[in-house]
Amino acid sequence: MAQTETQATEFGTDTVAPPRAGVRGRILLIGALATAAVAFLVTQAEMVLSSLRIGYLQFPPAALGLLLALVAVSRALRRLSARWGLSSSDLLIIYSMMLVGAMTSSHGIVQKWIPLPVALLYYADPINNWLGLYRAHLPAWLFPSMPHAAGKDPAALWYYERLPRGASVPWGAWVVPVLGTGIIVVLVVFAFLCLAAILRRQWVDNEKLSFPLAQLPLEIAGDEERRTFFSNRLMWLGALLPIAVYGVKGLHQVQPTVPDITLQWNLSDYVTVPPWNAGASETMFILSFAAIGFFFLLPADVLFSIWFFFLLTRIEQVFAASYNMDMPGMPIYPPPLFIGYQTVGAYLVLTAYFFWLARPHLKKVWAAAIGKERVDDSQEILPYRVAVWGLLGCIVLSAVWLWAIGMSPWLALLELLVFLFVTAVVMARTTAEAGMLMTETTFRPIDLYRMFAGSSGIHGLGPSNLAALAFFDNLFLRDQRGLLLTGFLDAGRLADGTSVRRRSFAGVLILGVLIALVVAGGLNISLPYHLGANTMYDWMEHGSPTQTLVDYQPYFNPNPPSQATQAWQMPLFFTVGVVMTLFLTAMRANFFWWPLHPLGYAIAGSWSTVEFWFACLIAWAFKTVFLRYGGMSLYQRARPFFLGMVLGEFGMAVFYVLLNILTAWLTPQHKFPPPAFPWG
Predict the structure, then answer these.
(1) Of 133, 162, 222, 231, which one is least surrounded by beta carbons within 10 A?
(2) % helix / strand / coil in the chain, to the nearest 5?
(3) Domain contains 679
(4) How many CA atoms, within 13 angstroms, populate the side-chain half-sphere of residue 381?
(5) Which structural domain range is residue 609 located in?
(6) What is the mean pLDDT of residues 352-374?
(7) Burial (0-12, 13-18, 19+ Cβ within 10 Å), 302
(8) CA distance 447 to 496
């Protein structure tokens, strides 16, 4: 690991590495090639193979797999010449590029960016009238188009049903839509980078959040100097557990007589009687070795809060069902509306609390931005002046872009401000403090407006606003997995383990995102024309974009049906969420023994918690027993075992992707079907 030093600043004690001029060109080249490889693997696994998600987690298995490969190659080269190997700093720089590249290639940007315009054109018909509702109210430059006499546009038809014989990919039809929508993509990505630069010192140095998702890369890269991680037998024992399990599951795929190992159970299969079955279909017991390994690193109170509040939401649903309470669903998201609006209230309170805690830091950041005070920001990804004015500029220009596609300026600002400063910040906090492998929420900014909109509701916004909302929602809001803000913040934490100036990481991260946009974007356009999107990942090519269009379609009706239940539930349970979160926050701030963390309450209804609450429960049980009967010494000794479980499970996922690619190339008629992974 690079040598570090502790220095005092006006922000408190900061741990920094001795800086050098910047990142070496050789490392940038290796990082660029590795990021391109990650973009290819993610696209192949998620869009073509469509059964392994190795890019959309906040700790992408694709990035970890290639990091392990680089370590192996580096050690082999080091035996030939000490100069040929990669240092821990080099590995962390390359990993940071792969980290943001994997998320960009997956749900973070590309997989939501490309399909929406063609999905609208392909699935539109006289019954749903999507051309009249959406296409007619959006600018033509958002959509790829080719000259045609009648019927569906060939740019969309060939995308879903493959190119006809002799035809080639219509790249020209995509130039204007990609460049046009690329503007908002670049603006939002840079806004995330600016926000990460502003928040990093507060979260890393002042509040000292643990950033659990950065711990394993730091261990792996640091082992190039310490040589303790890969020589630890407990680590290999932990890795062997998921390797053995997924080895058996892989054998079952090719030889069904080999017994399968079940890792997922749904409560609805066992509880079918009302009211006890309320919420049972979203109560899953998922055994993920990687999730258990990460959660073992978290404070016990955070773990307890996540599974406790998840089970509390299930008790709430059973209680409501027993009294025959009407439980309309939260639009698009899994929980009932009365739980979803508790989340809205919780997010707003937590946002206010996080920024309140950061007010001394933010005052200095603002003073630096307006030139009122000289503040040492040399160890930040961006200078504070660039970060503050860049963030404000991105918000203004993004609002202008949304206005250009038909959204009212006030609505554009509401969408952007809630997305960036409420939803994204709280979800980033869930990874930095609660180690959540997946970022997902239970509401969109428009759901906040819905509560205050009165009788007209969203129906009163008009067709231009509704069409623009559907486009922006699908691109950034409805599926938050792969949120890039968390990748930028984790990279800022990883920079502590390097001997490179943190300022150099800005270019590294931007390069990683751009490479992924080009490689994954190109693949996500060309592959459907060759394979047919109808044979690819159905959720991203069909389910996600069409659900967005279906969700907004009823609001074009100028005479909306009565929504009396929603009218009283939204403000009531929003208030419950506000009061409950204020109470939890106050108790946690004033009583060190208080066991409940408000983040657990805020994410209790999200899909992330549906998938990982059981892993939190198991990790909490292990950690509680270890600390009670063995103290910190036993916990520290056990830590490599749990990190090994992460390495083993994610490593097997990448192994199966590579095996599938190899068998598809060597024997196309006998492709290897990979086993399902619990987080996929």
Answers:
(1) 231
(2) 70, 5, 30
(3) no
(4) 32
(5) 5-145+174-666
(6) 95
(7) buried
(8) 39
